[in-house]
Write a structure and sequence with these properties.
single chain; about 250 residues; alpha+beta; four-stranded antiparallel β-sheet; three-stranded antiparallel β-sheet; 7 strands; about 45% helix; elongated
Length: about 250
């Protein structure tokens, strides 16, 4: 059987065998890829590259100390706890007499010295707490031997909580807690603030957060609405999703 002749399609392109044409095509493809890569790189302007001398040193940030009454309050609380513990140990020794008198006296003196050292460290650690508000973030520094510096940008700030215990109320102190989006724990836990100052600080943080969020969250949207007949501490706020956080 005779094979029918091959009919050439008008859309069929002849194979390119010319090395010059192949080389030009490869060069054009490489230039196109390079131009696309360059254009994608230039979408975001990184700005000038900073040198090490331009870095902001966290240790040099001007920070403010907390209220001086807070270290005093911790000193009083820790001293009372130590006195009660030593009193209970002394009463137990007098009643049960599990140890000889001299050994018991040496033990009580050692415990008292250890308690005094711990109390002093607690007082020093509380006095080292410092904070600062800057244009784009809030910074908290705390610690005595291991110093921790936390920076919370206003763009991540979700809501602010002010809490006050009975002893804090006596010294007009409150604790400020800042929560970020998607976090179940407070990223900034700042105790020992004067109550009046803390309220101004809360208002400032909420306004900065509302201005920094693209959605333009208002302060009223960041605070949960309470019923008129429900008792609410005037120095505390109950933000939305507060039930998801402890403290």
């Amino acid at each position: 059987m005779d094979t029918p002749p091959h009919v050439k399609s008008p859309f069929e392109q002849p194979p390119i065998n010319d090395p010059a044409i192949i080389s030009d095509t490869a060069i054009l493809s490489a230039e196109k890829l390079s131009a696309e890569k360059e254009s994608s790189t230039n979408i975001y302007d990184h700005g000038r590259r900073l040198s090490q001398a331009d870095y902001i040193q966290l240790a040099d940030l001007p920070l403010s100390n907390i209220d001086a009454n807070y270290p005093k309050l911790l000193l009083i609380i820790s001293t009372l706890i130590a006195v009660v513990a030593l009193s209970l140990l002394s009463v137990f020794q007098l009643i049960a007499q599990p140890l000889p008198l001299m050994i018991a006296l040496v033990g009580l003196v050692s415990v008292a010295l250890l308690a005094a050292i711990v109390i002093k460290l607690i007082h020093l650690k509380a006095s080292k707490i410092a904070y600062g508000l800057f244009k784009h973030e809030m910074v908290l520094r705390e610690g005595l031997f291991w110093i921790s510096t936390t920076a919370l940008p206003y763009t991540r700030l979700q809501h602010v909580n002010l809490s006050q215990g009975p002893l804090e109320r006596k010294y007009n102190l409150v604790t400020l807690k800042c929560f970020s989006a998607g976090s179940g724990l407070a990223e900034i836990d700042l105790p020992g603030l004067n109550a009046d100052l803390a309220e101004h600080l809360r208002q400032h943080l909420l306004s900065q957060a509302a201005a920094s969020h693209p959605s333009g969250i208002a302060e009223d949207d960041m605070v949960e609405t309470r019923a008129p007949n429900q008792e609410t501490d005037t120095l505390s706020i109950y933000p939305a999703q507060q039930d998801n956080h402890n403290g």
